Amino acid sequence: MIQPLQYISQAPKTGTHIDAIEQVLQAGGKWIQLRIKNQAESEILPFAKAAQALCETYGAKLIINDYPQLAKAVNSYGVHLGLQDMPILEARKIIGKHQIIGGTANTFEHIQQRVAEGADYIGLGPFRFTRTKENLSPIVGLEGYQKLMEKVRQAGISTPIIAIGGIETADIPAILETGIYGIAISAALTNQTQTAAVLEEINSKFSIHSI
Fold first, then answer.
1. HAMAP family given for it (predicted)?
2. Which residues are paired to 6 by β-bridges?
3. pTM of the model
């Protein structure tokens, strides 16, 4: 099952991606994407191994950003690919059928492309400008999600779509109202001194929406 709340890792002000991931796992996070940019696969591998071990300890699922070979090497739950990364069909040949593949989209055409490629879920964004990502695609914004999700409904697309990019806790109710499947959070859960409380507040937004 694709979790509706996903944490995208970033290094905290003090510590590493692994420190940030462990803090979210201790707070109850169940879906972690390890996203380390601008480093060689060999440098990311130790982080991927550590993140996978932590996710197994806490009963969570790990997604590796960008690198199918790393996802295969550590036997993560899956891999997430950006629009400029390896095509999904090529990545599928590497990781096989038992790991999932997520793909980024910025437009309805991208969503159709990801569905045609066989993505297991789609990361749609960015919601707003974020400093955690270089070469940012055009901002989607709330109005953009409303229009895109209406097209998704009309097209009968059932692939889970996750909103991503600069999303804060207060944004969640309005985004969920668009009919989107889930939300990815990064900065809003990193560098928190009360991670469990923040995660509880975020989860409450989902609970209220589902009532």
1. TMP_synthase
2. 184
3. 0.94
